[in-house]
UniProtKB/TrEMBL annotation:
Belongs to the LysR transcriptional regulatory family. This is Regulatory protein NocR. Gene3D superfamilies: 3.40.190.290, Winged helix-like DNA-binding domain superfamily/Winged helix DNA-binding domain. One of its GO terms (biological process) is positive regulation of gene expression. Residues 1-58 form the HTH lysR-type domain. The lineage of its organism: Bacteria, Pseudomonadati, Pseudomonadota, Gammaproteobacteria, Pseudomonadales. GO terms for molecular function: DNA-binding transcription factor activity; sequence-specific DNA binding. SUPFAM superfamilies: Periplasmic binding protein-like II, Winged helix' DNA-binding domain. It comes from Pseudomonas wadenswilerensis. Keywords: DNA-binding, Transcription, Transcription regulation. Pfam families: HTH_1, LysR_substrate.
Length: 302
């Protein structure tokens, strides 16, 4: 199948008719019919059958769907990358961060930075670590904040702050005077724990940290974001090992650092071998400063 064949195939799937596909592609109905016929002639089987006046996809076409979608996604990626390459550098600073970091660091730091640089523009997005790496490489964002160190030759990785994961518990689980007091890892044996999804960049590190506990923590719930883990703790569902950024400022939980510590690092990711606006260095320093403040406040139990 040629790209034009795939384009028409996708348009008919989306609209359900030749006329709808023609409108979507801004061409005539005869043109769509001709391209469809050409595609079916090359393939040697029909892609759609007309049943009671409506087009229905054939079993053979259904078998092609997954591979066709891959091609369509690749073409869309080329278009997005081309659009990013046409973009004039320095017009807008585009930043991404994982959900926990976006909620805790973007509001205070970006508002302060915008006051100092009123002529600058900033686009913010909240994505998971793998998506941030992809968007950086596709030039859809300029910098990303994450707790994951990606091993990729096309990226620069700059550590901004160092901290540790903490244990979050609902109020009443420990006495109030335990707030901020280090918790021995052995205390998590047989504890009800909110687990991390295997897709989380720190899941393997947490699993290795807890692997020698006997009996093992009881994990009946797994989540993909630390904010959801915190919400589950607040509801009384169990304990959670989460980052200090998510753990801050919760009136319904108690926070304790772990002993021995389970270290984490906040990283800023940018594309390698590429210049960036001079104001970005200043902005990253603000992020580093605010991150260190938040880490210190949580680990002290303040």
């Amino acid at each position: 199948m040629r790209l034009r064949h795939i384009e028409v195939f996708q348009a008919i799937r989306q609209t359900g008719s030749i006329s709808g596909a023609a409108q979507l592609l801004h061409v005539t109905q005869p043109a769509v019919s001709k391209i469809l016929q050409h595609a079916e002639a090359q393939l040697g089987f029909p892609l759609f059958l007309r049943v009671r006046g409506k087009l229905q996809i054939t079993p053979e076409a259904l078998a092609l769907e997954r591979e066709v979608d891959k091609v369509s996604d690749s073409v869309e990626g080329v278009r997005r990358l081309a659009a990013s390459l046409r973009r004039q550098p320095g017009m807008t600073l585009r930043m991404g961060a994982t959900p926990a970091l976006a909620l805790s660091l973007f509001p205070p730091v970006i508002s302060q930075w915008a006051e100092r640089h009123p002529q600058s523009e900033c686009e913010l997005s909240s994505l998971h670590s793998r998506e941030l790496v992809q968007q950086l490489l596709m030039r859809e964002i300029d910098v990303a904040l994450t707790l994951r160190h990606p091993e990729h030759p096309g990226l620069n990785v700059q550590p901004l702050a160092h901290g540790m994961l903490v244990v979050l518990a609902p109020r009443g689980y420990w006495s109030e005077d335990r707030q901020g007091v280090p918790l021995a890892v052995e205390s998590l044996a047989d504890a009800p724990l909110i687990g991390l999804s295997s897709s989380d960049p720190l899941a393997a590190q947490v699993g290795h940290y807890l692997k020698n506990l006997e009996p093992a923590p009881r994990i009946s719930i797994r989540v993909q974001t630390y904010s959801l883990a915190r919400a589950m703790v607040e509801s009384g569902a169990g304990l959670a090992l989460i980052d200090p950024f998510t753990a801050q400022d919760s009136a319904r939980t108690l926070v304790r650092p772990l002993n021995p510590a389970l270290p984490i690092t906040l990283y800023a990711l940018t594309r390698a071998n590429e210049s960036h606006p001079h104001t970005l260095d200043e902005l990253l320093e603000h992020f580093a400063e605010r991150a260190r403040e938040q880490i210190a406040r949580v680990t002290r139990g303040v």
